Amino acid sequence: xxxxxxxxxxxxxxxxxxxxxxxxxxxxxxxxxxxxxxxxxxxxxxxxxxxxxxxxxxxxxxxxxxxxxxxxxxxxxxxxxxxxxxxxxxxxxxxxxxxxxxxxxxxxxxxxxxxxxxxxxxxxxxxxxxxxxxxxxxxxxxxxxxxxxxxxxxxxxxxxxxxxxxxxxxxxxxxxxxxxxxxxxxxxxxxxxxxxxxxxxxxxxxxxxxxxxxxxxxxxxxxxxxxxxxxxxxxxxxxxxxxxxxxxxxxxxxxxxxxxxxxxxxxxxxxxxxxxxxxxxxxxxxxxxxxxxxxxxxxxxxxxxxxxxxxxxxxxxxxxxxxxxxxxxxxxxxxxxxxxxxxxxxxx
Length: 348
Prior knowledge:
Layout: H1 2-6, E1 22-23, E2 28-29, E3 35-41, E4 44-47, E5 49-53, E6 55-63, E7 69-76, H2 82-92, H3 97-110, E8 111-119, E9 125-131, E10 134-140, H4 141-145, E11 151-158, E12 179-181, H5 185-188, E13 201-203, E14 214-215, E15 222-223, E16 231-234, E17 240-241, E18 245-246, E19 249-256, E20 262-268, H6 275-284, E21 299-304, E22 309-315, E23 319-324, E24 342-347
Parallel strand pairs: 1-11, 2-5, 3-6, 5-11, 16-19, 18-24
Antiparallel strand pairs: 3-4, 6-9, 7-8, 7-10, 8-21, 9-22, 10-11, 12-13, 14-15, 16-17, 19-22, 20-21, 20-23, 23-24
């Protein structure tokens, strides 16, 4: 994801044709439980359900696009329209720093942004968050980087969204409250490559009543009790506040504790890379591939509005990675990463 984030030349094409917005077709309502499979491809974005119940909603995000998919989800703020939000996005990706800064400020006021995720082929993720009733709009940013108009897919969330959704039959849900069963997901979502551990239970936030914690087969991270996941905070001083060591396979909670927009990309770098190396690269204005970058899978927790948070479940090879955010600063228009919002971490 270095290419789409580091090279400023790509920004000029983004949302150049913002007025030509298409809307995705209708989709079926979700079955028991609020779970949506989001699939990106070279042809666009599809979702399994266009309607879910409010509360805890889990998104299974994958792509078959060789270039990856960078899927965003937003809801216009009260009194604002979809067109307002898309116009703001055009400003965010302007080559003019003043306009980009204005776009960031506009998006904070005009939209509530809920991720979702950037994924590569063969590297799916699961994003879990709480959604209130309303209309949400999903689209893939990557075609937009190539100059295409965004195609919006609508997700309708019904109900108050104030409490987690039971996803198990009555009588069983009291024993496994807060857990989302994905037994034999291949049969539920044919071709979906997420299923590294068939039959395992993936947890979602909620009231979990079983004592202790348990681990998914093939992972090292304990699951079970709410709050056990490592937390990465996206702060008001444009920094990542987290442990230096995060799980290579597991779940982390990403919290935007700032008053502006942030996202978190997770990209592999060569062992021994330091934050000083990364800052030196940004200050050099080098437009080429960073000398510390490594080929390999990467993921991204998409843009979160101030106060927003979500859980992201993933599997990456163990090693050295860098967390980065490239949102334009709301005063200078400079990408946050260039201003120092990067953190080298170890995944193990």
